[in-house]
Amino acid sequence: MQTFDLEAGSLRELNEMLHAQKDDTNQTAWEIVNAKGSHAIAVGLDAPIEVTIKGSTGYYCGGMNKLATIIIHGSAGPGVAENMMSGKVVIEGDASQYAGATGHGGLLVIKGNASSRCGISMKGIDIVVHGNIGHMSAFMAQSGNLVVCGDAGEALGDSLYEANLFVRGKVKTLGADCIEKEILPEHMEILKDLLKQAGAEANPDEFRRYGSARKLYNFDVDNVASY
Amino acid sequence: MKDDRQSFVSQTVPIQSATFTNEVNAEIRRAADTGIYDIRGGGAKRRVPHFDDLLFLGASISRYPLEGYRESCDTRVVLGTRHAKNPIELEIPVTIAGMSFGSLSGPAKEALGRGASAAGTSTTTGDGGMTEEERGHSTKLIYQYLPSRYGMNPDDLRRADAIEIVIGQGAKPGGGGMLLGQKISDRVAEMRNLPMGIDQRSACRHPDWTGPDDLEIKILELREITGWRVPIYVKIGGTRPYFDTTLAVKSGADVVVLDGMQGGTAATQDVFIEHVGLPTLACIRPAVQALQDLGLHREVQLVISGGVRTGADVAKALALGADAVAIGTAALVALGDNDPKWESEYQKLGTTAGAYDDWHEGQDPAGITTQIPELMARFDPIEGGRRLKNYLKVLTLEAQTIARACGHNRLHNLEPEDLCALTMEAAAMARVPLAGTDWYPGKAGF
Amino acid sequence: MCGIVGLFLKDKSLEPKLGQMLTDMLITMTDRGPDSAGIAIYGHEAGNSIKLTIQSDNPDDDFATLAENLGAKIGAPVSIQRKDTHAVLKLSASKASEARQALSELYTSVRLMSAGDTIEIYKEVGLPKDVACRFTIPQMSGTHGIGHTRMATESAVTTMGAHPFSTGPDQCLVHNGSLSNHNNLRRELRREGIQIDTQNDTEVGAAYLTWKMQQGSSLDEALESSLDDLDGFFTFVVGTKDGFGVVRDPIACKPAVMAETDQYVAFGSEYRALVNLPGIDNARVWEPEPATVYFWKH
Fold first, then answer.
1. Distance (Å, rounded) from C-alpha B150 to C-alpha B128?
2. pTM of the prediction?
3. Mean predicted confidence (pLDDT) in C198-213
């Protein structure tokens, strides 16, 4: 286990060391202490290592993550796992806004609540939130799956493309072109699998699926109010 | 008025309205037919104060010129010296602006790379991500970081020579929202993660930050991901250039790219292009002033774009304080866009050479702004690269000619005092005196 | 374009440390706002006195005889305690408006930073750590306070462009974000007779609240109506005599983090500002909802 103290060493040193790890590294377990809300911790990782962060992080923790598993024992600031390509990011506490923004792949698990704009512009990432999500979540979400065991705030899935949104609790309001849709067997498979991967106890039968009505895919002047 | 007696009576000549012109009326009819705004490519077409309204003074009894052949005139510039380990070294102060694969064909991007590399300068990716052609053919490639984040990934980020965070562009500062007619082919759809054949909706703000205080943290993240190796550019459309330049610098930008309203776009609402954003000429002095007030002129470099066409434009931008310029539309024209040899095809599309701007429909007869294989086949990327290289060479020679005539052995020694203005507007915007006078509007508080 | 901090103490034993705690939080936010900084500290009441915090660009000249001259003009004693370019005047509460009038007549270049029973506002151009040091903020004690570091957007970097802005007795406002209709509002408020000195959008926000309260709204109500009348992006933190309030615009893009324990309620633009507060590891940490007014008071 490699330990790095962000009070003793700099962010640059930390990220440089983590970037130096390649596919075949034998330094696969890392622990970062004294995170103290610092920004850009463990960004741009590109190796199958496991990084545990003690404490809460600032903005963009795990940004553009590839292959690595990052576990935050605390809460995460804005933009956690933004643009993640693959790998896994787990947050024991809450996530601030833009969690998983524009993520292309991998799995983001938030055990507490996520704030506004969770999964904004998602492009293939899977996000599972044990608690609630805030307003404008999954805005312009293109693909991937967002699973919410709690409630969702205003304007869920506004301007949605093809991402699947599964919500167990109440949805305050739906955004433009977002509608409730049937859960077919293939969706149930995805949902069950993601709940399992995220260690969420929720009953999959209690979820509803939301997706794009696809009315904004080709312009029709009668839909102009939705834009 | 008709006279029944059929003798000759003077009649009034039909008078067209300057307000309700033929173009305006046609547009009103089109709007009434379709219920949607007009979308087109390119930059502002209407006449606005521009570089043509400025002239160089040249040599005189008080100022001696340099010989054209023996006495050198240096054209090199380095961009991104402030923080990056590997700043961008260019042979000429003319770069190729961001244009997406998707709006341009693969061969067109290849041609830009070939031509720019042969001339010793850089190209820039666009709103669609980095293609193998571009990276392969460009010795220096700037990678755009846009609100859409189409195709964004850390591998491309790390193999880019610089990163350009796009906040806006001159054609549509603040643009986003609904953008129709972008017909998405399967290659484009895959890169952008969108269903094929649909209208693309564009985000106007970045998804994970708002404001220069957050931008500072985003720049930190990008530097950390790329090991602080490459310069970070910040690109803005021409709106509040003084404040925007100041804020870009305070957020950590190494280079500021400022794009005026004549700057082109692949497609946006015509009303946006023509009625939002400043002319390029109006952007330069305030941006330079901001850098000077911060004590960072020449340390944070300024790249100006939007309607740069000739070596005179290049020289004038540099004289006003820019470190380099970027060309977009001009590069496409050099490659063969809107060439009169396709006139019969333009006519079939309801337009004419020089006016063709429905690039979003992807029917470009020149094979440049299209994804249709038969049309793309008309464009030879190697020939295109050669043409671009030639054109860049001419821009450089013209600028050098002017600089030498003004007594300078480096392009970057051109200064505002080498210029005079032909109109009040240009004088005010460029803060350069009217020809034959020592006065411009705004001088001494007027 | 800014960093905001706020601290409201529930535990009286922490009061002597208020200034130090707030200063540390403010310094952490320096990156968000290197241009200027300001702090409002709510100290202890002093009987029937009110405090006027003033600022001068020529403090040596202005402050030398100010207390005497002012006291003579209003016919009541005025004490002055100087700190660098600022000074705190203490005088009888019954003479408050007379004193303000007299001050503006006698000393046209002296600016009034705050007025009230307990509030003192200090703000200047410069880095937060330097500003705090100049005014000995770390040594100050009090019940609550708010602070601000500024990155100017559309107006100049000047003393008067810095936050907090006073909105009334014992009241002030700090802002993170950018209002888009501040020019029109400024014109309207000026027509209503409100004095607005700078081109700063925040000053307009403060003037708007002042005006609403002059029209009879409570601060709560004024903040509620600001959600309709102000356009743009804003996180507002307002200081009041009893505590502080927070409101975010409906789009809520500008950041806001709160932390609460038995000892305090704290606000920061980033979690980083809160990390050194006592007991932060076990604090309840959350983000205020958009378009919702929050208040904490003693």
1. 5
2. 0.92
3. 91
